[in-house]
Write a structure and sequence with these properties.
The protein is α/β, with parallel strands linked by helices. The protein contains 8 helices and 19 strands. The chain starts with a strand and ends in a 26-residue tail after the last strand.
Length: about 425
């Protein structure tokens, strides 16, 4: 009989958001505000957690539900994926389960030792060496000193920074810091692990290494709650999944089915007849530097989203915001109708091309397209150093036509012809 190790019942979390900015003040009003500031600040602080002024039928303009009536159970040894767009309550759910924040209503029962990997690198002290930070960060994440000593060599080996172990972390590159932070967190051995988008950091090779480590964790019989925008990782790691939208659970069940339904819905979010897409401001998580627009063209420079086999596709992507790191590297990911990743491209990793902070428009030429007939979608991502600062999921879509190398008159599954057509010869 299943043994629930986590039981969530009607969990809700409500937040106050910023109020409208006040207009210009007179000198007299400024003096009055200064005198009354302590009382006003206390009242504002109380309003952050006190919702007694709001009736059930009437909601305040400065209030949002980050999570609403979430109920589910997780059995011992189960790996549960949590998916959804940015801002739908995924991280809020894990923060409540980690006791970082309290719910507005509802409750969660957790039976077992919990370790959270919500923000890689939290707790690192820049003045301490890598060696000292391993012990500091391990203690913060719930490891005992002897546990850290026993796993010290494994942690250092995984991070691949042995040479710089006794160097202050403030002299580490961002990528080295990420490697060390993940190495510490990944070697925890609690009964329950809460993991939030840790595979979105570091270079591609290190991401693959992290994914491999997470697979080992999942196979080790530990209960894992895993938040990610990487649907391939969700399919690979998770046996079941929950789809969140606007703080509510839309669907829960086997990971493959939930992910497929989610991806089908996401495909409908962009107009497939559109070859110029403006970014929805609500989709922007990083306001500092992000994608703002994308347009699609063929080799002739004509706007289109329909291509024949062996043609080339051109993307013109626009960026907005300020960049302080000095250079950036755009990436693209192409998925088919089944949600399978069929191609990935990176200006930095594959071509060693980096753009400086003044560049606001980049041209990406993809092809020749050797994809089979069907609909495809493009996700865009941008890296600065070794950190991913923005991801635009399902930014734009396109269709491949007139390519059915093994077309038949009898019905076959969608994946009958594979995902691409390679040149081949028989002799």
């Amino acid at each position: 009989m299943p043994n629930p190790i986590i039981r969530v019942n009607k969990l809700c979390k409500r937040y106050r958001i910023g109020l409208k900015k006040q207009g210009y003040q007179t000198f007299r009003e400024a003096i009055i505000d200064t005198v009354t500031a302590p009382a006003k600040n206390l009242k504002r602080l109380n309003r952050l957690t006190n919702f007694n002024d709001i009736s059930e039928k009437k909601s305040a303009d400065d209030m949002i539900w980050a999570l609403r009536d979430a109920s589910f159970e997780v059995n011992e040894g189960e790996v549960l994926g949590i998916i959804g767009k940015n801002g739908v309550g995924k991280s809020t759910l894990l923060k409540i389960l980690s006791r970082i924040t309290e719910p507005t209503s509802g409750f969660a029962e957790i039976n077992g030792r919990v370790s959270s990997l919500l923000e890689v690198g939290t707790g690192f002290h820049p003045e301490l060496t890598g060696r000292e930070n391993i012990f500091l960060n391990g203690s913060i994440l719930g490891m005992r000193k002897q546990e850290i000593k026993d796993k010290f060599d494994e942690i250092v080996s995984f991070s691949e920074i042995e040479k710089y172990l006794d160097t202050p972390v403030k002299r580490f590159s961002s990528g080295m810091g990420v490697r060390l932070a993940f190495a510490v967190a990944a070697h925890l051995e609690p009964e329950i692990m809460l993991i939030d988008e840790v595979l979105a950091v570091g270079d591609i090779a290190f991401q693959e290494k992290c994914l491999g480590k997470m697979k080992n964790v999942a196979k080790g019989g530990r209960t894992v709650l895993f938040v990610s925008h990487n649907m391939g990782a969700i399919r690979s790691l998770c046996s079941s999944a929950i789809w969140l939208d606007s703080g509510q659970i839309v669907k829960m069940g086997p990971a493959d089915k939930v992910v497929r339904d989610y991806e089908e819905t996401q495909l409908k979010h962009f107009d497939e007849s559109s070859y110029i897409v403006e970014r929805d401001p609500e989709d922007v998580k990083n306001s500092r530097f992000h994608f703002s627009r994308v347009e699609m063209l063929n080799e002739k420079g004509e706007h289109t989203n329909t291509f024949k086999y062996n043609e080339k596709l051109i993307l013109i992507v626009d960026f907005a915001g300020e960049l302080s790191e000095g250079h950036f590297c755009p990436e693209f990911y192409i998925y088919n109708e089944l949600g399978q990743l069929v191609s990935v491209g990176s200006s930095g990793v594959l071509h060693n091309i980096y753009f400086n902070e003044k560049v606001r428009k980049v041209r990406i030429e993809i092809g020749p397209l050797i994809l089979t007939s069907g609909k495809y979608r493009v996700t865009l991502s941008v890296m600065t150093g070794n950190a991913r600062v923005d991801t635009w999921e399902n930014a734009i879509g396109f269709t491949i036509i007139e390519c059915q190398p093994f077309a038949t008159n009898w019905e076959m599954p969608l994946f009958r012809d594979g995902v691409c057509v390679l040149q081949h010869f028989f002799s």
